[in-house]
Hints:
Layout: E1 2-7, H1 19-33, E2 37-43, E3 52-55, E4 58-64, H2 78-93, E5 97-100, E6 117-120, H3 127-133, E7 140-143, H4 146-153, E8 160-161, E9 167-169, H5 185-190, E10 198-201, H6 212-224, E11 230-235, H7 244-259, E12 266-269, H8 277-283, E13 286-289, H9 300-307, E14 311-315, E15 331-332, H10 337-348, H11 356-366, H12 369-382, E16 390-391, E17 402-405, E18 409-412, E19 415-418, E20 423-425, H13 428-435, E21 439-441, H14 442-447, H15 452-463, E22 464-466
Parallel strand pairs: 1-2, 1-5, 2-4, 5-6, 6-7, 7-9, 10-11, 10-13, 11-12, 13-14, 14-15
Antiparallel strand pairs: 3-4, 8-16, 17-21, 17-22, 18-19, 19-20
Helix pairs in contact: 6-10, 8-9
Amino acid sequence: xxxxxxxxxxxxxxxxxxxxxxxxxxxxxFLGQKGHQVTILCTRREDNSLIFQLGKxxxxxxxxxxxxxxxxxxxxxxxxxxxxxxxxxxxxxxxDVIYCHDSQTLLFQWLWExxxxxxxxxxxxxxxxxGNAFLFERDxxxxxxxxxxxxxxxTIGRFQQGLKKRIKVxxxxxxxxxxxxxxxxxxxxxxxxxxxxxxxxxPHRADYEKGLKHAMFTVSGLVARGFxxxxxxxxxxxxxxxxxxxxxxxxxxxxxxxxxxxxxKVKIHPWIPYERMREYYSLGKITLCLGDAAETFGxxxxxxxxxxxxxxxxxxxxxxxxxxxxxxxxxVDVYDVESTIDVCVKILKGKISLNYxxxxxxxxxxxxxxxxxxxxxxxxxxxxxxxxxxxxxEKVLNSTRKLSLAPWCYISKKGMYIDYxxxxxxxxxxxxxxxxxxxxxxxxxxxxxxxxxxxxxEYGITVISSL
Length: 467
């Protein structure tokens, strides 16, 4: 089978630079090993412009003329977009099925009228993703969590008739053959850490949405509580020296560390090659996943860290609320620094620990790497060209309409947190009604003191979804 994969994100020959692209890379290599002919079209960059063979039967062509550095890929000249359309059209004719590794190229789905289209949403929050996601109307949509599926159905599904039947949930898998507890003594020396150092890991890209400030305040709090040997490890992202935003990000890290008086407790180091990530995770005492982004999966980093025996701490944002159970990964409310410090202290004192073998058995069962790859192959092989979904009008919000708390919201002691607003709403009257009633009619909510205007304007689309 000839498979055309389209990705706005780059694929490098020797660098893995993020969870989404790691999944794509591993999928392509798997498909090639299975005998499929795979061509990947991705964005051309100054540092990644040559066509190369990624593996058996897998050819990578970095020739799409989108903006080189994310975000805003369409922020480029119109003649470059026209050339990109021409390139995609030419390659479409030579392949049997099209796989878009994000929704950001759905703008061009009219090119694939005669071929099956499979699209995967790797996030459901960035502007380009959301704008193009509402264009989905064809053959199969892959999401990586029930949370992502619920968000899609509670938004796009309101207007696309029959969307649920075309969604496939394929959870990200973790490769336990390459990720396991390993000797990290060489890496400890490379980082200049002594035997008493307590490494705290922050293995994320240069983005405040990943929870960097939360992590730095946590380290500051640990130092204040007597853990003088903690060291926060932060990798330079691959776009360093290529994006002013990324360079500014690291300068801000230095400024904040100086302000918090933890400059010597923060170490920024080169990006770690994927084949050495097991050393890195094994080095850490704790891995921090404290972002406020509406994560659609719930952190690949958390799975990788657990595979190597290091406990991750997750913020209760997006799919991180539900992807992993609390016994395997402690969770804290978004922005709750004090609770994060408390959990760190318990881990460092041995009051929270993991049974390494039990964790790996759990990951093998629930996040099987082979199952993920085979599931993608099944969708690619079996998806047929289908009629576009029909559009439908939303029902009127009358008094008998049933409503429920939307998937992008949760209620905590700090208030109702909304993933997309990244803030807590403190309305006890409304929270009590919603927390104690999983499903309610508009009439019931009105009797409890929630006005229709609140439902529509403040809570309706943002907080409450229709059933």
